[in-house]
Amino acid sequence: MPAIKTTKPVAVGDKAPGFSAADETGRAWSLKALRGKTVVLYFYPKDKTPGCTTEACDFRDRYDAFVKKGARIFGVSPDTAKSHAGFKAKHGLPFPLLVDEDKEICRAYGVWKEKSLYGRTFMGVERSTFVIGKDGRLVEVLRKVSVTGHAEAVLEAV
Q1: Domains detected in the chain
Q2: Which end of the chain is more exposed for a tag (fewer CB within 10 A), N or C?
């Protein structure tokens, strides 16, 4: 289920790149089907890692506040459905985790980037969050985010 490709980085006011993806249960989701709802799409590098766990749990802990504002939260990473299912169960995450093994959604949103760690260069997910308005346009774009306080900042942007 490929996403629409973009040629320039997406920015506030742009139409959000469309996507179709399955979650950890195999349920299919698409941006088109979510039209009319506020969508929080947060991209994270890897299930079960310290920073990603903290970020997911912060979104979990504020989930009711997001729901009260009418927002749907979706986590996205290149991990498998099996990995997502274990991560979600272990931490009681109440929102879907979208499988992006082919990195099409990551590429469409411009978060599949060259990274470096300890002098080694590799491709990976740049931790980023996109708030998509009911009209399908981006209302907030947060890139290279710090885990601490991030979910609270996103909640304020919704």
Answers
A1: 39-157 (3.40.30.10)
A2: N
pLDDT (tens, 9 = 90+) of the chain, 158 residues, equals: 444 444 568 999 999 999 999 999 999 999 999 999 999 999 999 999 999 999 999 999 999 999 999 999 999 999 999 999 999 999 999 999 999 999 999 999 999 988 887 888 889 999 999 999 999 999 999 998 889 889 999 999 99
User: Which member of 34, 52, 151, 154 is catalytic?
Assistant: 52
Angle at which helices 50-61 and 81-91 cross, to 10°:
60
The 8-class DSSP code of residue 17 comes to P
In the residue annotation, 106 being an active-site residue is answered as: no
Name residue 146's amino acid.
S
Q: Distance of alpha carbon 20 from its chain centroid, rounded?
A: 13
Helix (H, G, I), strand (E, B) or coil at 76: strand
Cα distance between residue 123 and residue 141, in whole Å? 21
> What's the rounded Cα separation, in Å, for the pair 132 and 125?
19
132 contacts 38 by C-beta, under 8 angstroms: yes
Residue 149 half-sphere exposure toward CB, CA atoms < 13 A? 2
Amino acid in position 94: P
Q: How far, in Å, CA of 29 to CA of 96, rounded?
A: 9
